[in-house]
Amino acid sequence: MNETTEAGWEVVIGLEIHAQLATRSKIFSGSATAYGAAPNSQANLVDLGYPGVLPVLNREAVRMAVKFGLATGSTVAERSVFARKNYFYPDLPKGYQISQYERPIVEDGSLEIMLDDGTKKTIGITRAHLEEDAGKSLHEGLKNASGIDLNRAGTPLLEIVSEPDLRSAKEAIAYLKKVHTLVRYLEICDGNMQEGSFRCDANVSVRRFGAAKFGTRCEIKNVNSFRFVEKAINYEVARQIDVLEGGGTIRQETRLYDSAKDETRSMRSKEEANDYRYFPDPDLLPVVLEPAFIETVRATLPELPDEKAARFIRDYALSAYDAAVLTSSRELASFYESVVAAAGGAASAKLAANWVMGDFSGALNRDGLEIAGARVTAEGLAGLMARIQDNTISGKIAKDVFELMWADRATADAVIEANGLRQITDTSAIEAAIDAVLAANPGQLAEYRSGKDRLFGFFVGQSMKATQGKANPAQLNELLKKKLDNP
Amino acid sequence: MTIHTRSVAELAAGLARKEFSAVELAEHFLARIERSNSALNAYVTVTPERALADARAADEARARGAAGPLTGVPLAHKDIFCTDGVRTACGSKMLENFVAPYDATVVERLHAAGTVMLGKTNMDEFAMGSSNETSHFGPVRNPWDLDRVPGGSSGGSAAVVAARLAPVATGTDTGGSIRQPAALVGISGIKPTYGRVSRYGMIAFASSLDQAGIMAPSAEDCALLLQAMAGFDARDSTSVDRPVPDYVAELGAPLQGVRIGLLKEFFAHGLEGPTATLVQAAIDEYRRLGAEIVEVSCPSLPLSVPTYYVVAPAECSSNLSRFDGVRFGHRCKDPRDLMDLYKRSRGEGFGAEVKRRIMTGTYVLSAGYYDAYYLKAQKCRSLISADFKRAFAEVDLLLGPTSPSPAFAIGAKVDDPITMYLNDIYTIGANLAGLPAMSIPCGFDGALPVGLQLIGPHFGESRLLSAAHAYQGVTDFHRRIPAAYA
Q1: What was the pLDDT predicted at A484?
Q2: Is B78 a catalytic residue?
Q3: Domain count within chain B
Q4: Cβ contacts of A285 on chain B, cutoff 8 Å
Q5: Cα(B260)–Cα(B279) distance, integer angstroms
Q6: How many CB atoms lie within 10 A of CB A346?
Q7: Of B319, B90, B417, B293, residue with least CA distance to A54
Q8: Nearest-CA distance from A53 to chain B in Å?
């Protein structure tokens, strides 16, 4: 699979993902959760942990956690309990974080990931629990002092803990992306990694193949992009193997990933770890969910990514890969389906897939746009496909047409008309072009006819050029062959 | 008739008759505070301007015809309740300079009912104590004997009502902090059912036990005030959304046929001397009033003190973590680094008893000790609750002493925390089980008042108040005022 396994070491990874729930207000107070506000402008007395204030649970956060539980086939607890995790830190106003400990709201689910070779693997989800985020300490621009911004304090998080089922950085990324896709499908998290709405800690260990017990693990914190998660895990795996092969032992510790140096370094050892003194939070009642409530939430679940991909494979005859790419976000899948519908249905599905995954996605990436901001609509793209299918333009010219459509927000027909890109299908016109090329290249013609077959390509190119690339390629090929071979 | 010797109900009637204005009433009490507070040390903050402003507003409301039953009634708040714009120190150096930016729900509701705030009362630091001697602001003195404690932690509230430096005061009760001081100064005090009164804005000691209540001369006064305080509050998740009965209207409920249980465990050991005699006399009085007296048992009750002293410190150790010198409260001078800031701010800001409880609580929640202490205590708590539940299947009310002895001398138990903790032996059970309970005066041991405790089933405040009211209809202990303050 990769070099580390070849060296006889098995990699074992479990991920803890923190997904910020997309509620409008905080999990235990009425403050707004919008990102990027002026420091402490979204922190009320509850967020500041003032004497006498009390937390009140945001029901919306509960509903979102239930959605996630149902979407991962988990057990949604009919009774879960908030606990206090006690430790001192300046950006933790109460001196404890309200989290769930012994009784999480979601337990025992799974997600399926696809490996490189196309096989599927089930990754267990141990639990997902609700908790509040801490604030942020600010050090930049301050002398001999630290600033504290409590806007983020009390933002609802769903901490999603996987089983140690992942066996490589690649698997870890596939799982991470799967969760990322799912939470956005469920509209419970915006998935924005730069803003910290979707973060991940990785528990990494290695062991000799065949070993019965897991190796000692290290927890890598502070990784905020898919790429960095992969790099951090790979660095950590190599480091651990290095230590073990050098006769050393791995210390259980928390390590920080430094993306600038591409390395992990020790943050604190197990011995230095806090005793969090968890106990049930007496300010909050247990969260009791009636089965009827859980069913009403189930009724709001959208078609999930795996279901959608299976349907695409079935209804549109797509490959598993194409289906996976097209269902990677709800918006992309919906755009794709609009294109197919506008293009007249399943017969156009493969062509639509190629265009949506190819030029369309490429243009979005290039311009840094979301689908909502795309400069070619689903109907527009279907219009372009129609001109390919009715031979008005070739697939090659279509790429130019697409770029012009994108640049001018124009329809395919308008672009084709304005630029005279209509494909030439008139046999006599193509023949005239071919005749002219043959006449202009008597030497090559003689060589071809004496057996130099590979000059055929030369004549294709010249003839296509003579029609400004507009000749129907199949027709041109056929006519050229006929003229070359039958003098 | 002198103004200050009247009960709240009588003062409210006087206001309604326009015998005196709210401003005159406030001025009268402010003058008494001015004269007597320095000897008692019962108020830590007096708010004359606020009182007069409230009183003027009350008089205007009455002139408009918008007066309610409490409009113009002066009161004092225990300094554990946050009061917007007024210092809320909670008996601690930690909050010596803390001005709350908001009103506790209790303060807000009583203000909306037209009451007039005279000031904030002294208390044991963060409500941890049974004698008011742990206050950073010095001990409160018992109006019946200045060398004795008024009980705690609501000792200031108890003393101001006993000495009539306020007709009524709010209190909080985590392990007896309303009832024990009420007993020791000879007034009436009610701790409602857990969840009956909002805890929002009440500085937390032990969240699962804390409950706000009222301290006043009579049960009728308690009913009047509780009426305005009680009820669901969306800001407190543990407050209960359940209609509030008309406590005042139900005060007259007859005692005929009411079954009153005597808890065997309350009378078994240690209860002797004048307190035992006075409680026995009260039992006889209840029998004469038509109640049926039966003996019941809560065999787990002897576990209540050790259970309490695990649960309460555990919760307090976490609740008091927010006092870290970062955002509010005491901050040490020139901290070297973060750890120094934490250690010195907390080391300097908290007193010895608070530190003892934080350390105890931290210990019982620690890895390796949690099961043996905290978890076991929670199991004991369940047993105690179940025992009470069984008892209330047989009886309507439970009756017993409030405190093992009358007020003790200041300094007598200060060096012996265990003896001090045993003061709460009769009161803690109701907190652990979340039950409503009252203390009312039932006589005197020499010159010192003795309290009688009544405990009701969950949300049984009406029965509790009417039983106390019936007793007060045939006794006058609750009307007695120390000679120096009469």
Answers
A1: 81
A2: yes
A3: 1
A4: 237-238
A5: 13
A6: 13
A7: B319
A8: 5
Find chain A residues with C-beta within 8 A of B88's C-beta.
Answer: 51-52
Are residues A317 and A456 both part of a single domain?
Answer: no
Cβ-nearest to B200 among A52, A90, A285: A52
Q: Residue B467 falls within a domain, yes or no?
A: yes
Count CB pairs under 8 A between chains A and B. Answer: 100
Residues A378, A470 share a domain: no
Q: What's the rounded mean pLDDT across residues B338-343?
A: 95
pTM score, whole prediction: 0.91
Residue B8 lies in a domain: yes
Give A322-325's long-range contacts (Cβ < 8 A, gap of 24+): A322/A353, A322/A357, A324/A114, A325/A357
d(CA B202, CA B109): 13
Asked if B201 lies within 8 A of A93 by C-beta distance, the reply is no
Largest CA distance in chain B: 70
A197 and A291: one domain? yes
Q: Is the pLDDT of residue B476 over 70?
A: yes
Closest CA to B41 of B153, B159, B134, B147: B159
Report the relative pairing of strands B259-263 and B292-296 from DSSP bridges: parallel
Nearest beta carbon to residue A52 from set B201, B314, B320: B201
Q: Find tokens 């138990």 and name the residue.
A: B413
* Residue B177 among the catalytic residues: yes
Tell me what pLDDT residue B1 has. Answer: 54
Q: How does pLDDT run across B411-463, given as a tens digit for each residue?
A: 998 888 887 787 788 999 999 999 999 999 999 999 999 999 999 999 999 99
Q: Which CATH number covers residue B46? A: 3.90.1300.10
Residues 229-248 of chain B with CB under 8 A from chain A are 234-238
User: How far away is chain B from the Cα of A61, in angstroms, using its nearest Cα?
Assistant: 16
- The domain total for chain A is 3
Show the tokens assigned to A94.
């109460």
The low-confidence residues of chain A, meaning pLDDT below 70, are: 1-6, 487
User: Does A170 lie in the same domain as A75?
Assistant: yes
**Residue positions counted in chain B:** 486
Catalytic residue among B131, B153, B218, B300: B153
Instruction: Give the distance from residue A77's alpha carbon to the nearest chain B alpha carbon, in angstroms.
Output: 20
In a domain, B439, yes or no: yes
**ipTM given for this complex:** 0.96
Residue B120 bears catalytic tag:
no
Q: A-chain residues within 8 Å CB-CB of B95?
A: 51
- Cβ contact (<8 Å) for B88 and A51? yes
A94: nearest CB among B200, B201, B322: B322
For residue A278, the chain B residues in CB contact (below 8 A) are 365
Domain limits at B238? 3-257+430-485
Residue B138: which pLDDT band, with cuts at 50, 70 and 90?
Answer: very high
Q: Point out the residue among B100, B101, B324 whose CB comes nearest to the CB of A88.
A: B324
Q: Are residues A274 and A402 in the same domain?
A: no
Q: Do A136 and A281 share a domain, yes or no?
A: yes
The pLDDT, as a whole number, for residue A174 is 95
d(CA B19, CA A346): 91
- The domain in which residue A347 lies consists of 305-419
> Quick check: B154 and B180 in contact, CB under 8 A?
no
Asked if A279 lies within 8 A of B82 by C-beta distance, the reply is no
pLDDT tens digits, one per residue of A120-149: 999 999 999 999 999 998 888 888 788 899
